[in-house]
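Troubleshooting entry. Yesterday's outputs looked truncated, so today I'm pasting the complete records for two proteins to confirm everything comes through intact. If either block looks cut off, that's the bug. Protein one:
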Amino acid sequence: MLRSINKLMHGFDFDRNDGDLSGSYVVEKLDGWRVRWTGTRLFLRSGKAVNAPDWFTEGLPRRILDCELWAGRGARDEVSRAVASKAGNWRSLRLMIFDAPTVAGDFALRHAAMMRLDLGEFAEVVPMEVLPSMDSLPQMLERVVSKGGEGLMIHRRGRSYRAGRVDGLLKFKPQHLAEFDLIARQHALWSVPV
């Protein structure tokens, strides 16, 4: 059992009071199982060790990484079956790395450090995009959701990794579009010349 697993960073749901997020870093919110790689083993959020086959973790760096065990969009049950048994279909899984808690700096610096890591055959870094403007957020969400994705995670610029629920990390899912539309309507009203 690993107690430090409780030191994961978690985001809040998007809210209309979050302000302009232009320039923030956006990644797909994956629908797998959240895990932490300690440099030697995988652990679930509960702190329970994951009995991953050695070949699955072979080649992973000896540093702490926040990850998602992922079998693809809509395939969370496949992850559950694999994790339930070391003999499960681990070859259908990917270890998707989405943060490096021990790297100093904001998400852009942490992501750049992750991209430089030598990873094993079954691991990859979750791709990141910069949010050009608030107007592009619904299109980014639609692109992910249309492929069966769950939503987006938005990392505010200039925020370091902090354990717990933090306002520097936001979840943006289809149910948040109503909030977003309200912001767009208010902005349109405010920008109308009088």
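Protein two, checking that the full record survives here as well:
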Amino acid sequence: MGNLSKETPLSEITATIELLDHLGVERKHLTLLRSDGKFAKQVAEFICNSGIQEPPLHKSIRIKMGEKNMFGIPQAVKYLGITPTIQQLAALEVIPFSDDTINACKKDYILVANFGLSIFDIRNKVGDKLFSEIPGAHPMDNWYLKQKFTGEIGQVGWILIRKTEVPESRNKDWKEQQRLLSKDEYVPTAQEMTYAIIGHFLNSCERLFEYDYVRCTDFISKISGVYIGNFTTPGLRILKTMWDHRYIEIGVAAARKQDF
């Protein structure tokens, strides 16, 4: 429950009522709003989502995936303050995964409407509290802020991200981990993983990769790349490692390739 009734001055309440009256809203509509919970929820969602309505097809896929396993357009608007452009909505209109893929992935993956925010942009939207760069954090946690990949914009579109590392991928080097991917999988970028992990947490309060790490596809150099995880209370950690090293706590991330 918010503090709207306590924080809103009477003058603003009056001005809002006058505006609704000018637009044709009658007292009976306000009565319905208070008495009909379903109607009130629809109105509240419409307001919170800045008037962005979820297409029927997206809703049907949400039912299949489960409410917590889909971070769609309304959730991006609500939790990340996204104001979608016409071009972005067009890019997200079709969810490029078949019914068979959705059914196969609904337990172990999250479906994410990626608006392409860079890691810098995500940090600016949610603040430092969900990242480990807070006073007293390990010095290694700050290295990536100066890296090129942190500011790179991702591709707008739908992604299906595995909620755990690829099975049996820990304690293996990069080339060994690559061989564990199925023909339908690829290793996502740090941008895709950060966006998915943070968005999923805001939507469901579930921390993915809470006590482990996964490699992403980003290269720092010919011999090192990015891995992320350990998303505990201090926040998500973004680190670097040697490609040819093996670590018991580092697996590899995976996402499904699009069907169409």
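Both blocks look complete. Sanity check on protein two: The radius of gyration is 21 Å.
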